[in-house]
Amino acid sequence: MFGSINQQILLKSRPTGEPIEKDFALVETAIPELGQGEVLNRTIYLSLDPYMRGRMSDRESYADPVELGKVMVGSTVSQVVKSNHPLFSVGDFVLGYDGWQTYGIAKGETLRKIDPNQVPISYALGITGMPGMTAYFALLDVGQAKPGETVVVSAASGAVGAVAGQIAKIKGCRAVGVVGTDEKCDYIVNELGFDACINRKTKDLSSALKAACPNGIDVYVDNTAGPILEAVLQHINLGARIPLVGLISQYNAENPSYGPNLMPLLVKRALIKGFLVGDYQERQAEFINDVAQWLRAGKLKYKEDVVKGLEKAPQSFIGLLQGQNFGKLIIQVGDDPTQN
């Protein structure tokens, strides 16, 4: 059975600088009737990701902004409670894009079934989902990481960074992470196996990078841009590759800051390339096969930061942009029957 009321969090206003809780509104609505080919899902887990900040603004981007008064976007792991689609049955677990709400209606072709017997279903929002796939292709396709090279990863304890660093180690690279606290440094070195870690709040980031990367930097998986990118460019090797995955340092800026000194890119004939995981959907099976194998072999570890309650999503999202999360941030919206 399922309820008749749907809780939703809407985008109430467009943020100026950092989002605040008043930019969101929690409302209750009736659950609409299903159309042909549609599926009604009960949300179990909601993914919170930095890219959502860009969707809150109305400036030009690679995706349309969320309309004011509409449900905030977001990937979800849900359970089917009603289906008008032949490929989905009540009780199925699915990965979808139902957003910040307790129930969502989706076209069947937009959903992917999840096997609850393989790994925890929440992993579909992280290591076996978009963040993991981002790490995989950013490092291996754009970054072209090779054994013996030095790979630096910013936001290295987060959903993308933690996976990128571990894959770098699997591929025989030296992995150096940049994070925001000493606790996170301890985690990625002693738990995830990074070779070294730098607290980004250190007074001299460039000197710290030089010490951690005595042979220079071959690949930089950039989740942040800003001062970390500026410091990394001072130590790149000839032919270095920089997949630009995220811009956490810029998302709240009303007026984007001036970019770094580009001279090292010219002198070192280095590559910096923007990365969007949506460009790799046709290669998803390649990613899933490798990551599933590494998980079974114990070569990949994964940490989740789970917050219970849909109403906690705005506060948690604001904290995400400030680096307060530790691991992949997800909201547990409803009961997870696989945990019983």
TrEMBL record:
Keyword list, A-Z: Oxidoreductase
Domain of life of the native organism: Bacteria
A Pfam family hit: ADH_N_2
Record domain Enoyl reductase (ER): where: 22-331
GO MF annotations, alphabetized: oxidoreductase activity, acting on the CH-CH group of donors, NAD or NADP as acceptor
CDD domains: PGDH
The protein's name: NADP-dependent oxidoreductase
Lineage, opening ranks: Bacteria, Bacillati, Cyanobacteriota, Cyanophyceae, Synechococcales
